[in-house]
Structures are given as structure tokens and as C-alpha cells.
Design brief:
There is one protein chain. The chain has 2 helices and 6 strands; from the N terminus they run βββαβαββ. It is an alpha+beta fold. It has one domain: 60s Ribosomal Protein L30, Chain: A, CATH 3.30.1330.70. The strands form 2 sheets. It has a 4-stranded mixed sheet with strand order 1-6-4-5. The longest helix has 17 residues. It starts with 9 loop residues before the first strand and ends with a strand.
Amino acid sequence: MTTTPTTGTPVLLGEFEVPGTPVPKARPRVAQDRRGRNRTHTPARTLDAEEAVRTAWAETVRRRYLDKTWRYRLELEFYGAHGSADVDNLCKLVADALNGWAWADDRQITELQAVKRAAPAAARRTRVRVFRVE
């Protein structure tokens, strides 16, 4: 998935890898509570994967970029993602996880490049590069 580049020179803000099999963003689940009311929740696997992305950002980049006027380019490489994992859902998990860390809101991403690559179990990971587009 690639978008057409916008004008301006991209400036690298952060680059890191998240170890383990890439996880696609799962849809929220609806379940009834004891009183019969519907409650929506995000699956634990999605929450854990988003936390792993945020932790990798915090440990590697060690800075938050929250300027709401900035535009961003996001480059992603998913090594060893399951064949059934949609690349757009893999991207969505990373974009949502970095809300409030790499950007104020993922709506600020104006360029996106993503690739799924085969990898043996020991080499499964997600490579993330975040650029500011000036």
C-alpha cells in the first residue's frame, strides 16, 4: 500500500522494530454484561500488540511529537505476518498505537508505504519508520 508523496522533504523522526509476529488490528467485540447490556471491548491480543508498539517507540525514540499541524509519512515492513493478515489492518494497529506518541492523531499521516514479507519464525518483526513531511 503506497500513497503518492506530498511536496516537501521528509525528516526522519524515529525508526524502530517490534519483535514478534505482526498483529493486525482486530475489530472491537461486543458482549453482554451480567445485566444484559451490550459492552464493546478491544481484544486483548490487539491491546497487547499496540502496547508493544508504544513501548518500542518510547524506548527507542524517547520523545513525543504532538504538534497537530504536522504531517507524517509512515513506512512499515511486516516480516512474517500470517498470510491471512490484511496489510491495511496491520498498518492500522501501528497507526492507532502511536496516537499521542508519534503524532497527535493518525489523521495526520499523509503518506503511507507498507510491505508484507515472508520471514522464518525467529525473524518475525515489524519495522517502523516515521517521518515528518515538511
